[in-house]
Design brief:
Blueprint: E1 6-13, H1 33-42, E2 46-51, E3 57-64
Antiparallel strand pairs: 1-3, 2-3
């Protein structure tokens, strides 16, 4: 969803899922799920990853939008 102040994104599946405690810390230039959290934080937002073996996965992202100036 999108409004004037916030972008909210949810991605989910009903797949195999995984143990989120086994996610690695973000690495410079990495493209993993922890990096997803780090990039959301850089934009002043947050990402939440929820998963469990046999339960599927859900990723929620909230990022504040900044007003554009001059065009």
């Amino acid at each position: 969803s999108l409004n004037r102040r916030t972008l909210r994104l949810e991605i989910r599946d009903n797949g195999r899922g995984f143990d989120t405690s086994r996610l690695e810390a973000p690495r410079r230039g990495g493209h993993g799920l922890r990096n997803f959290e780090a990039r959301a934080a850089e934009l002043g937002g947050e990402a939440q990853i929820t998963s469990a073996p046999g339960q599927g996965t859900r990723i929620r992202v909230r990022v504040p939008l900044r007003a554009r100036r001059g065009g």
